[in-house]
Amino acid sequence: MNRELEKIKYNFIDQVKHMNNVLGAWNFGSETHNLSDDYSDVDIVLLIDGKQFNQFTFLLERCLENINTKIILCWPERFNNEAIINNGYLLLSGSNIFQFDVFLLNIEKLDDSMCRLHYTGLKETDIIFDKTGIVNKLMKLHLTGNFWSDDISYLEKTYWYHANMTGKYLKRKDYFKLNHVLHTMYETHISMLLVGFDKITWGGSANKLYFIPIEKQTHLKKYYCPENLEGIEQNLISCLRWFQTDTKEVYKIQKNH
């Protein structure tokens, strides 16, 4: 993590740990998987007293502004509700802009599925502070994530149905429809690969893809649609062959399981 951002993080922690309505805190995201680097943002989960939950965002933002940063944008997740609030902040510090994500969990609604996601895989080394022992109890639940799951028969049908559309859009030179179809094929191919080759139980597809065979990662990069459509037909032929091969492999892997 960038040293200046790390300083902001610990100044923030020094403030919130003295608040009576903040009962615990732990790290989330890349830092918990030893994948943090100079470009990583901050991901912190705060366990909030249920009675103060709806009012805490105001206090949170006041803390951020008290540590010599200016909030230039707050992006609330669409899933925000009475159980969990995830706001992503862009903070201006000097001439630098940093991303700072804070997850607020309502202690009275920890069984909510989105809340559970944010303490799944929680380790002792992730815990920043725990005033009442509740964070430790969450850790001792030993919740684990899941490997990727999907219906490979449906994925196969989806892929070839959309692959059939590419011919007419190429002939028409219809960039926008072709780009849309290629995106669907790309996402379908991703799901097929992850069904067979997923190696981690955390994160979304963008995280998981780094752990599949490198050759297959490279194949996925051919699903792009250049403005002039140059080279797209040859790329498509390659992608179709790779998908066919990957589908056979995944069926074989599933059968052996």
Describe this structure in words.
The protein is an alpha+beta fold and 257 residues long. It is elongated and about 65 Å long. It starts with a helix and ends with a helix. The protein has a six-stranded mixed β-sheet. The chain has helices at residues 3-16, 56-65, 113-117, 134-139, 152-172, 175-197, 205-208, 214-220, 232-256, and strands spanning 22-27, 42-48, 70-76, 84-93, 96-106, 127-130. The protein has two domains: 3-139, 2-Layer Sandwich (Beta Polymerase, domain 2), CATH 3.30.460; 152-256, Up-down Bundle (Four Helix Bundle (Hemerythrin (Met), subunit A)). It contains nine helices and six strands, in the order αββαβββαβαααααα.
Break the fold down into its secondary structure elements and pairings:
Elements: H1 3-16, E1 22-27, E2 42-48, H2 56-65, E3 70-76, E4 84-93, E5 96-106, H3 113-117, E6 127-130, H4 134-139, H5 152-172, H6 175-197, H7 205-208, H8 214-220, H9 232-256
Helix pairs in contact: 5-6, 5-9, 6-9
Strand order of the largest sheet: 3-4-5-2-1-6
Strand count, sense and barrel status of the largest sheet are:
6 strands, mixed
- Rounded to the nearest angstrom, the distance between the terminal CA atoms is 40 Å
Provide the domain count. 2
CATH superfamily of the largest domain: Beta Polymerase, domain 2
Unreliable stretches (pLDDT < 50, length at least 5) are: none
Query: Class by helix and strand content?
Result: alpha+beta
Percent of residues in helices: 40-55%
Count of DSSP H/I helices: 9
Give the mean pLDDT.
94
Broad CATH class of the largest domain = Alpha Beta
Rg measurement, Å: 22 Å
